Amino acid sequence: MKATGHGDEGRQLQIEGWSQIVPVEPGGNAGAPDREKMAENNAADTGNQKGKLMDRILSRGNLNAAYKKVKANKGAGGVDEMQVDELLPYLKQHGEEITQQLREGKFKPNPVRRVEIPKEEKGKVRKLGIPTAVDRVIQQAIAQELSPIYEPQFHEWSFGFRPKRGAHDALKQCRQNVDDGYAYVVDMDLEKFFDTVNQSKLTEVLSRTIKDGSGVFINALGTDMVTMEEYYP
């Protein structure tokens, strides 16, 4: 195993043990939520609470849950070759410095390891980015606290890459739409979507809700947002 890029001095986390179908009436609107207004309302609630939010992210309970989630998901190692089973002793030794870097906005994720997995279509592959195991814990910890803040901004009929939602929920909604009298389906695929996300625009959208002028959360999540596909399969 190669050393991960987060330093070597005494870090210690307090981890236990370390342990769309949108109905539109003639002349009406699509019924989608006013995302701009929702974002503004949420920003008013969270804009001045970055310190408290970071405290929640770095709390013992949240970090424990993040570690357990990453460990349960298993998965391959990142560019530092550290495996999930090696996380616990590493975080026992280095957790304190990592949390300090996060609080000061100095934490920098490692580059992701690129892998290709075959698609059903012959000859085509899907590109994934695999973060290091340590970065996955940090990103998971952040996602656990940010998801409840951003979730209300999503449409109720959005099912992809969302917690406690999946294909079965989408099928159930489709059956309901058929029962309601809908007869047409529009099927679209955005080619190489994760490869072409405008990072600046994504950061701007996130900042409407979380007023993070120092970029602490964005830096910790990393700029390679394609990696989030791995966390919410």
Report on the structure:
The chain has helices at 35-46, 50-57, 60-73, 87-103, 133-150, 167-179, 199-207, 216-221, 228-231; strands spanning 113-118, 125-130. The protein has nine helices and two strands. It has a two-stranded antiparallel ribbon. It has 233 residues and is mainly alpha-helical. Helices cover 43% and strands 5% of the residues. It is globular, with a radius of gyration of 20 Å. The model is unreliable at 7-48 and 223-233 (pLDDT under 50).
Quaternary organisation? single chain
Total number of helical segments? 9
Q: Roughly what fraction of the amino acids lie in strands?
A: 5-15%
Tell me the total number of β-strands: 2
Based on secondary structure, the structural category is: mainly alpha
User: Ranges with pLDDT <50 over ≥5 residues?
Assistant: 7-48, 223-233
Largest beta sheet: strand ordering: 1-2
User: What distance separates the N and C termini?
Assistant: 27 Å
Biggest sheet overview: 2 strands, antiparallel
